[in-house]
Write a structure and sequence with these properties.
Order of helices and strands: HHHHHHHHHH
Radius of gyration: 17 Å
Helix content: over 70%
Protein name: Probable membrane transporter protein
Keywords: Cell membrane, Membrane, Transmembrane, Transmembrane helix, Transport
Membrane topology: Multi-pass membrane protein
Strand content: under 5%
Main location: membrane
Largest sheet: none
Distance between the termini: 29 Å
Structural class: mainly alpha
Subcellular location: Cell membrane
Length: 247
């Protein structure tokens, strides 16, 4: 029964990831904690997100050039290093609280703005800043995607281009964590059992999502990203409240 539930969770997570480019772990992890240990959840989520991101990057490889996200990728490295340092001197719950208020405020501010179709734009500076915080919060509270999604919203890239960019960036950033998990000994027999279930389930969810993408307007795609970012902020806030009120 747990394996059936696990498959269902990742079908849903794959669907969300397919239409937004991120959010698979945000959807899956809360449900997985109901019946799985965190030492199993983290490496499973990491490698499944990497695999799903690879599918997106391959599908939309003709829609974008990797060089447009290089500033974000380069800056993610020092962000991850600095995040690891801060994690030693600050509570992860303080970082989660900062992340929560930042993301929620960003979403509220965006929904209050009047949407206007604008030309696509690239910015090395903004991309670098968002990449830095992607690495920083990825290494501290495992929330890599939201800062990258904020950059996608800034650029105004069309959905296919945005999905390809998010997929490519997350391959590299989360893939690095997968390597560290391997050498840490997290890839156990139980891990492989769930992995064999999660991979086809997640890909199935993504395949189901693809026909819907052509019906999603740029305005609605923006709203989807904002909802996922807001959900990430609420997740951070709930974890902090749960820790201080229930723990």
């Amino acid at each position: 029964m747990e394996q059936i539930c696990f498959a269902g969770i990742w079908i849903l997570a794959g669907f969300i990831n397919g239409i937004s480019g991120m959010g698979a772990a945000l959807v899956a992890v809360p449900f997985m904690t109901l019946f799985m240990d965190i030492q199993l959840i983290v490496p499973l989520s990491c490698i499944l997100v990497t695999i799903l991101s690879s599918v997106l990057a391959i599908k939309y490889r003709s829609e974008f050039h990797v060089k447009i996200i290089l500033p974000a990728l380069f800056c993610a490295v020092p962000g991850a290093v600095l995040g690891s340092y801060f994690l030693k001197i600050l509570s992860s719950h303080i970082l989660e609280l900062v992340m929560a208020f930042t993301l929620i405020a960003y979403v509220v501010w965006n929904f209050m703005q009047k949407y206007e179709v604008a030309e696509e734009r690239n910015s090395t500076v903004v991309g670098g800043i968002c990449g830095f915080f992607s690495g920083f919060f990825g290494s501290t509270i495992s929330f890599t995607g939201p800062p990258l999604a904020i950059y996608i919203l800034y650029t105004g890239w069309k959905q296919q281009k945005a999905l390809g960019a998010l997929g490519s960036a997350l391959i590299i950033i989360t893939g690095t964590s997968c390597v560290s998990h391997y050498f840490a000994g997290f890839y156990t027999e139980e891990f492989l059992t769930y992995l064999y279930i999660g991979v086809p389930a997640g890909i199935l969810g993504m395949l189901v999502s693809f026909p819907f993408i052509k019906y999603i307007t740029q305005k609605n795609f923006r709203k989807i990203l904002l909802v996922v970012i807001g959900f990430a902020g609420l997740m951070c806030l709930s974890r902090v409240i749960g820790y201080y009120c229930l723990g």
